[in-house]
C-alpha cells in the first residue's frame, strides 16, 4: 500500500467541501442552513447573481457570454455537488443554475427545514 492511499480520507457522504469551507449537503431537513452557506460560496465565486436570477446571461456569443457561461457552470457544479443523492433526483435534467436553485427551494424550503430558524419569544 502506498503512503498516499493509506493517508487518503474519503469525503463524508453528508459533507460538501470546497476551497472556502464546508457545509452539510442539502437534504430534506436542512434547506435554510444549506442555502445560507452556499450563497457565501457562490458570492466568493462572483456567481451568486446568476443563481438568484438577478443577472441575465447573454444569449449571443461574445466575451461577456463566455465569462457568464463559466460562472453559470461553477454555480451549477456547486449546487449539484452540495446535494445528497436523494435531493439530486429533483435536479435531474436541469443545467441552468437558477432553475436548480428555484427547484431546490420549491421542493425543500418546507416547514421541517424552517423549524431550526423559529425563534421563541
Termini distance? 58 Å
**Low-confidence segments:** 1-10
Helix coverage percent: 40-55%
Q: What's the helix-strand series? A: HEEHHHHHH
Biggest sheet descriptor: 2 strands, antiparallel
Rounded to the nearest angstrom, the radius of gyration is: 16 Å
Number of strands: 2
Strand content: under 5%
Shape: globular
Mean pLDDT: 82
How are the strands of the largest sheet arranged?
1-2
- How many structural units, i.e. domains? 1
The DSSP helix count reads 7
Structural class, by secondary structure, is mainly alpha
Describe this structure in words.
The chain is mostly helical and 121 residues long. The protein has one domain (15-116). 54% of the residues lie in helices and 5% in strands. The protein has seven helices and two strands. A hairpin with a 4-residue loop joins strand 1 and strand 2 (22-24). Helix 4 runs parallel beside helix 6. Mean pLDDT is 82; it is low at 1-10.
List the helices and strands and how they pair.
Blueprint lengths: L2 H5 L7 E3 L4 E3 L6 H14 L3 H4 L11 H19 L3 H7 L5 H12 L2 H4 L7
Antiparallel strand pairs: 1-2
Amino acid at each position: 500500500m502506498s503512503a498516499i492511499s493509506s493517508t487518503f480520507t474519503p469525503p463524508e457522504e453528508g459533507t460538501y467541501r470546497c476551497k472556502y469551507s464546508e457545509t452539510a449537503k442539502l437534504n430534506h431537513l436542512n434547506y435554510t442552513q444549506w442555502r445560507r452557506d452556499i450563497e457565501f460560496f457562490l458570492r466568493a465565486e462572483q456567481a451568486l447573481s446568476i443563481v438568484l436570477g438577478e443577472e441575465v446571461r447573454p444569449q449571443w456569443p461574445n466575451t461577456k457570454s463566455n465569462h457568464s457561461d463559466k460562472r453559470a457552470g461553477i454555480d451549477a457544479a456547486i449546487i449539484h455537488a452540495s446535494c445528497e443523492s436523494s435531493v439530486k433526483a429533483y435536479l435531474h435534467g436541469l443545467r441552468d443554475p437558477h432553475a436548480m436553485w428555484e427547484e431546490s427551494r420549491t421542493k425543500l424550503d418546507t416547514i421541517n427545514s424552517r423549524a431550526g430558524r423559529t425563534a421563541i419569544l
